[in-house]
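Morning - 5-O-phosphono-beta-D-ribofuranosylamine inputs below, output right after.
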Amino acid sequence: MESTHCRIVVLISGNGSNLQALIDASIHSNFKIAVVISNKADAFGLQRAQRDNIPTEVVEHKDYSDRNEFDRALMDTIESYSPDLVVLAGFMRILGAEFVSYFRGRILNIHPSLLPKFPGINTHQRALDAKEKEHGVSVHFVTEELDGGPVIAQDRVQVSSDDSASSLAEKVLEKEHLLYPKVVSWYAAGRLKLENNQATLDGSALPEGGVQVHP
Ligand code: GRF
Protein backbone atom coordinates (compact mmCIF):
# COMPACT_ATOMS: atom_id res chain seq x y z
CA MET A 1 0.00 0.00 0.00
CA GLU A 2 1.41 3.39 -0.89
CA SER A 3 1.21 5.48 2.26
CA THR A 4 0.06 8.63 0.48
CA HIS A 5 -2.79 6.84 -1.20
CA CYS A 6 -4.56 4.65 1.34
CA ARG A 7 -8.08 4.42 -0.04
CA ILE A 8 -10.72 4.24 2.64
CA VAL A 9 -14.41 3.50 2.40
CA VAL A 10 -16.51 5.04 5.20
CA LEU A 11 -19.78 3.39 6.24
CA ILE A 12 -22.35 5.54 8.01
CA SER A 13 -26.00 5.49 9.07
CA GLY A 14 -26.63 8.99 10.35
CA ASN A 15 -25.18 12.35 11.27
CA GLY A 16 -21.62 11.61 10.19
CA SER A 17 -19.69 13.90 12.52
CA ASN A 18 -16.89 11.31 12.61
CA LEU A 19 -17.04 11.20 8.83
CA GLN A 20 -16.62 15.00 8.85
CA ALA A 21 -13.54 14.66 11.07
CA LEU A 22 -12.12 12.13 8.59
CA ILE A 23 -12.94 14.37 5.61
CA ASP A 24 -11.23 17.33 7.29
CA ALA A 25 -8.18 15.29 8.30
CA SER A 26 -7.83 13.64 4.89
CA ILE A 27 -6.91 16.97 3.31
CA HIS A 28 -3.54 16.90 5.06
CA SER A 29 -3.19 13.22 5.81
CA ASN A 30 -2.10 10.00 4.15
CA PHE A 31 -5.55 8.63 3.36
CA LYS A 32 -8.25 9.44 0.85
CA ILE A 33 -11.97 8.77 1.14
CA ALA A 34 -12.93 6.82 -1.98
CA VAL A 35 -16.66 6.64 -1.18
CA VAL A 36 -19.14 7.08 1.66
CA ILE A 37 -21.76 4.35 1.88
CA SER A 38 -24.92 4.60 3.97
CA ASN A 39 -27.60 2.05 4.75
CA LYS A 40 -30.04 4.96 5.09
CA ALA A 41 -30.89 7.27 2.21
CA ASP A 42 -31.57 10.21 4.55
CA ALA A 43 -28.32 10.02 6.53
CA PHE A 44 -27.00 13.56 6.93
CA GLY A 45 -23.47 12.28 6.46
CA LEU A 46 -24.23 11.75 2.76
CA GLN A 47 -24.69 15.49 2.38
CA ARG A 48 -21.39 16.12 4.13
CA ALA A 49 -19.66 13.87 1.57
CA GLN A 50 -21.47 15.40 -1.40
CA ARG A 51 -20.45 18.87 -0.23
CA ASP A 52 -16.85 17.75 -0.67
CA ASN A 53 -17.44 15.95 -3.96
CA ILE A 54 -16.85 12.56 -2.40
CA PRO A 55 -18.81 9.79 -4.15
CA THR A 56 -21.73 8.35 -2.16
CA GLU A 57 -23.73 5.14 -2.34
CA VAL A 58 -26.84 3.96 -0.52
CA VAL A 59 -27.33 0.27 0.18
CA GLU A 60 -30.57 -0.07 2.13
CA HIS A 61 -31.17 -3.25 4.06
CA LYS A 62 -34.90 -3.03 3.38
CA ASP A 63 -34.19 -3.70 -0.32
CA TYR A 64 -32.81 -7.16 0.46
CA SER A 65 -34.64 -10.26 1.53
CA ASP A 66 -32.22 -11.24 4.28
CA ARG A 67 -29.11 -10.17 6.06
CA ASN A 68 -26.76 -12.26 3.91
CA GLU A 69 -28.08 -10.68 0.73
CA PHE A 70 -27.64 -7.23 2.22
CA ASP A 71 -24.12 -8.03 3.38
CA ARG A 72 -23.21 -9.34 -0.07
CA ALA A 73 -24.58 -6.24 -1.81
CA LEU A 74 -22.66 -4.06 0.62
CA MET A 75 -19.50 -6.09 0.07
CA ASP A 76 -19.83 -5.76 -3.72
CA THR A 77 -20.38 -2.02 -3.49
CA ILE A 78 -17.37 -1.63 -1.21
CA GLU A 79 -15.17 -3.81 -3.42
CA SER A 80 -16.08 -1.84 -6.54
CA TYR A 81 -14.05 1.02 -4.99
CA SER A 82 -10.99 -1.22 -4.28
CA PRO A 83 -10.37 0.12 -0.78
CA ASP A 84 -7.38 -0.56 1.45
CA LEU A 85 -9.47 -0.02 4.58
CA VAL A 86 -13.15 -0.03 5.59
CA VAL A 87 -14.03 2.47 8.32
CA LEU A 88 -17.30 2.12 10.24
CA ALA A 89 -18.34 5.55 11.52
CA GLY A 90 -21.72 5.36 13.21
CA PHE A 91 -22.81 2.46 11.01
CA MET A 92 -25.77 0.96 12.85
CA ARG A 93 -26.12 -2.47 11.22
CA ILE A 94 -24.60 -5.63 12.61
CA LEU A 95 -22.48 -7.24 9.92
CA GLY A 96 -22.49 -10.99 9.40
CA ALA A 97 -19.60 -13.40 9.88
CA GLU A 98 -18.88 -13.79 6.16
CA PHE A 99 -18.59 -10.03 5.69
CA VAL A 100 -16.43 -9.56 8.75
CA SER A 101 -14.10 -12.41 7.89
CA TYR A 102 -13.74 -11.16 4.30
CA PHE A 103 -12.49 -7.76 5.53
CA ARG A 104 -10.65 -9.09 8.58
CA GLY A 105 -7.70 -6.86 9.48
CA ARG A 106 -8.94 -4.18 7.06
CA ILE A 107 -11.99 -2.92 8.96
CA LEU A 108 -12.18 -0.56 11.94
CA ASN A 109 -14.97 0.67 14.17
CA ILE A 110 -15.31 3.51 16.65
CA HIS A 111 -17.32 2.85 19.78
CA PRO A 112 -18.35 5.39 22.42
CA SER A 113 -17.16 3.60 25.56
CA LEU A 114 -13.99 2.34 27.14
CA LEU A 115 -14.26 -1.22 25.83
CA PRO A 116 -14.65 -3.88 27.09
CA LYS A 117 -17.08 -1.80 29.14
CA PHE A 118 -20.47 -1.13 27.54
CA PRO A 119 -20.52 -2.81 24.16
CA GLY A 120 -23.78 -2.26 22.26
CA ILE A 121 -26.02 0.82 22.46
CA ASN A 122 -26.89 3.57 25.00
CA THR A 123 -23.34 3.61 26.28
CA HIS A 124 -23.50 7.07 27.84
CA GLN A 125 -26.60 6.37 29.91
CA ARG A 126 -25.16 3.02 30.95
CA ALA A 127 -21.92 4.69 32.08
CA LEU A 128 -23.98 7.15 34.17
CA ASP A 129 -26.11 4.35 35.63
CA ALA A 130 -22.95 2.45 36.56
CA LYS A 131 -21.63 5.62 38.29
CA GLU A 132 -18.45 5.54 36.23
CA LYS A 133 -15.95 8.28 37.05
CA GLU A 134 -14.39 7.96 33.61
CA HIS A 135 -15.88 7.24 30.22
CA GLY A 136 -14.56 7.52 26.70
CA VAL A 137 -14.07 6.16 23.23
CA SER A 138 -12.39 3.11 21.71
CA VAL A 139 -11.26 2.38 18.17
CA HIS A 140 -10.98 -1.31 17.44
CA PHE A 141 -10.55 -3.87 14.70
CA VAL A 142 -13.88 -5.43 13.78
CA THR A 143 -14.22 -9.15 14.43
CA GLU A 144 -17.22 -11.48 14.66
CA GLU A 145 -17.89 -10.42 18.25
CA LEU A 146 -19.99 -7.23 18.46
CA ASP A 147 -17.74 -4.37 19.66
CA GLY A 148 -15.37 -7.10 20.80
CA GLY A 149 -12.39 -6.95 18.40
CA PRO A 150 -8.89 -5.98 19.56
CA VAL A 151 -8.81 -2.38 20.80
CA ILE A 152 -6.30 -0.11 19.06
CA ALA A 153 -6.65 3.12 21.02
CA GLN A 154 -8.77 4.84 23.64
CA ASP A 155 -9.27 8.35 24.89
CA ARG A 156 -11.19 9.23 28.04
CA VAL A 157 -13.24 11.98 29.66
CA GLN A 158 -14.14 12.62 33.29
CA VAL A 159 -17.78 12.08 34.24
CA SER A 160 -19.08 14.96 36.37
CA SER A 161 -21.96 14.77 38.80
CA ASP A 162 -24.07 17.04 36.58
CA ASP A 163 -23.47 15.12 33.34
CA SER A 164 -26.44 13.82 31.37
CA ALA A 165 -26.25 11.21 28.62
CA SER A 166 -26.24 13.99 26.04
CA SER A 167 -23.55 16.14 27.71
CA LEU A 168 -21.42 13.04 28.04
CA ALA A 169 -22.02 12.13 24.40
CA GLU A 170 -20.84 15.60 23.40
CA LYS A 171 -17.65 15.33 25.44
CA VAL A 172 -16.91 11.87 24.06
CA LEU A 173 -17.62 12.94 20.46
CA GLU A 174 -14.97 15.64 20.74
CA LYS A 175 -12.46 12.93 21.59
CA GLU A 176 -13.79 10.66 18.83
CA HIS A 177 -13.14 13.33 16.22
CA LEU A 178 -9.49 13.51 17.22
CA LEU A 179 -8.91 9.82 17.74
CA TYR A 180 -10.38 8.28 14.59
CA PRO A 181 -8.34 10.23 12.01
CA LYS A 182 -5.21 9.51 14.05
CA VAL A 183 -5.81 5.74 14.05
CA VAL A 184 -6.73 5.71 10.36
CA SER A 185 -3.48 7.51 9.56
CA TRP A 186 -1.52 4.86 11.51
CA TYR A 187 -3.16 2.23 9.35
CA ALA A 188 -2.51 4.23 6.19
CA ALA A 189 1.16 4.48 7.09
CA GLY A 190 1.34 0.68 7.40
CA ARG A 191 2.04 0.93 11.14
CA LEU A 192 -1.12 -0.75 12.38
CA LYS A 193 -1.97 -4.40 11.75
CA LEU A 194 -4.13 -7.24 13.00
CA GLU A 195 -1.87 -10.26 13.52
CA ASN A 196 -3.07 -13.49 15.15
CA ASN A 197 -6.10 -11.67 16.49
CA GLN A 198 -3.85 -9.10 18.13
CA ALA A 199 -3.56 -5.43 17.20
CA THR A 200 0.05 -4.39 16.59
CA LEU A 201 1.51 -0.92 16.15
CA ASP A 202 5.01 -0.64 14.67
CA GLY A 203 5.39 -4.39 15.11
CA SER A 204 4.61 -4.45 18.85
CA ALA A 205 1.47 -6.03 20.27
CA LEU A 206 -0.83 -3.48 21.86
CA PRO A 207 -2.08 -4.00 25.42
CA GLU A 208 -5.73 -4.89 26.06
CA GLY A 209 -7.06 -1.30 25.98
CA GLY A 210 -4.79 -0.28 23.10
CA VAL A 211 -2.84 2.97 23.06
CA GLN A 212 -4.06 5.33 25.80
CA VAL A 213 -4.15 8.68 24.11
CA HIS A 214 -5.20 10.71 27.12
CA PRO A 215 -2.43 11.62 29.63
C1 GRF B 1 -20.49 7.90 17.51
O1 GRF B 1 -20.68 8.11 18.88
C2 GRF B 1 -19.73 6.61 17.26
O2 GRF B 1 -18.80 6.32 18.26
C3 GRF B 1 -20.84 5.59 17.28
O3 GRF B 1 -21.92 6.22 16.65
C4 GRF B 1 -21.80 7.64 16.78
C5 GRF B 1 -21.82 8.20 15.40
O4 GRF B 1 -21.84 9.60 15.38
N1 GRF B 1 -20.41 4.36 16.66
P1 GRF B 1 -21.60 10.37 14.04
O5 GRF B 1 -22.62 9.84 13.03
O6 GRF B 1 -20.19 10.13 13.58
O7 GRF B 1 -21.86 11.82 14.37
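Note: The chain has a mean pLDDT of 96.

O.
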